[in-house]
Write a structure and sequence with these properties.
The protein is of the alpha/beta class. The chain has 3 domains: 1-51; 55-150 and 233-295, Ribonuclease H-like superfamily/Ribonuclease H (Nucleotidyltransferase, domain 5); 152-232, no CATH class. 51% of the residues lie in helices and 17% in strands. It has helices at 2-10, 15-26, 32-39, 43-50, 106-118, 135-142, 152-160, 168-179, 184-198, 207-211, 213-216, 224-230, 234-247, 256-271, 282-292, and strands at 57-72, 75-87, 93-101, 123-129, 147-150. The N and C termini lie far apart (53 Å).
Amino acid sequence: LEEKVISMYGLGMSTRDINKHVQEIYGIDVSAEMVSKITDKIIPLIEEWQNRPLEEVYYFTFLDAVHFHVKEDKAIVKKAAYIVLGVNSEGKKDVLGIYIGGNESAKFWLSVLNDLRNRGVKDILIASVDGLTGFSEAIKTVFPHTDIQRCIIHQIRYTLSFVSYKEKKEFAKDLKEIYTAPNEETGYSALEELKEKWSKKYPYALKSWENNWGELRTFFKFSPEIRRIMYTTNVIENLNRIYRKVTKTRSSFPTDMALMKLLYLSTINLTEKWKTGYAKDWHLIKGQLAIEYEE
């Protein structure tokens, strides 16, 4: 019965629905307090999973946060679940850790990265991130040799938010010339041409490309196979969508641990399905990275 309750909880079912199903099948009432006590039995498993040793090197990591409402000091506050998804030397995906903290900040990310290092990670080759201020500095503090790629998809969305609806299609077409360029030189030339054409009408739209070019250009030095993996954080955003789906029946959580239990169970359910490698041509990707990061 406890296994069934934990399984239903992990699928995102509300306490009311769990009680209804258990009542229909077993004729037993299951209160919210009972569900909490039963699911508390997985807390040692969560702690073991969260502190497990990690591999020394991850070829790719994707870092992002998803936000939830949690009760704290008799008030409902917004909290961030910091998620780290890694791809190891065999091309296998794994959620390296989930950390519940305050609103997303570079300072908290620094503590997350230090935890990864304390659990055995010595190096990350490429980290794909969003545009949070101070994110790159936090990564470089812990893993100074990591190449950082700012998510191109996030960048495009941000840029187009300054463009009128009527001209978005044309602007997006011109913008595509930057990130589909064969090399950095051609990409930067496309940015210059875009500025010449649109800067008078939308002076702020392209400033972010100029200011963050150092982290937007990283993928240009790699092959199309590697670019497809690193240029966006979509892989972790897909993971976050699954987390939102299993938590949608709850407007808020009574504690951080109540949220953590659900995220952990859905993570275990998901990662059991990740049997195959991240990319079909992983042997090619691994060979190219071995040349790029020979040291």
